[in-house]
Amino acid sequence: MIGLYLLFIYAGGITLLGVIVLTLAPSLRFTFTNLLVFVVGAVAGMLAMANLFIWGVRLIFGLLQIRTSQTTDVLIYFPAVIGAALGGAALVWLKTRIMGRRSVRPM
Q1: How many CB atoms lie within 10 A of CB 43?
Q2: For site-directed labelling of 41, which of 11, 67, 97, 104 has its Cα 20 to 30 A away?
Q3: Is residue 60 part of a domain?
């Protein structure tokens, strides 16, 4: 049950982040395809940045011999959002670069 809850919360948040980034970035166009590509890249970027952050913090705290509790886990959200924005925008940019800018036909 908690997995479905987190899926809807994160999918909604990543989609909202995608709408904001795609409308504000001048080189990226807001289309449904770009939004789907953004969500895929954002999930990958979020996981990569969060894991990199956790690995780095554990390494630094291990070298400095600092013990922490689980209450410091709230800090993971900031690198996760940054990783989601970077991963999604990078994948949309890569898609645009490879596929080229195709003209959108009016319906």
Answers
A1: 18
A2: 104
A3: yes
Domain that holds residue 51: 2-99
- With a pLDDT cut of 70, the percent of the chain lying above it is 82
Measured distance CA(48)–CA(83) in Å, rounded: 7
CB 73 within 8 A of CB 106: no
Q: What is the pLDDT of residues 2-49, one digit of tens each?
A: 666 666 777 788 888 888 888 888 888 888 888 999 999 998 998 899
Asked if residue 68 belongs to a domain, the reply is yes
Nearest C-alpha neighbor of 40 from the set 105, 2, 86, 87: 87
Integer Rg of the chain from CA: 17
Instruction: Give the pTM.
Output: 0.77
Query: Nearest to residue 95, comparing CAs of 38, 49, 30, 46?
Result: 38
Q: Is residue 104 part of a domain?
A: no
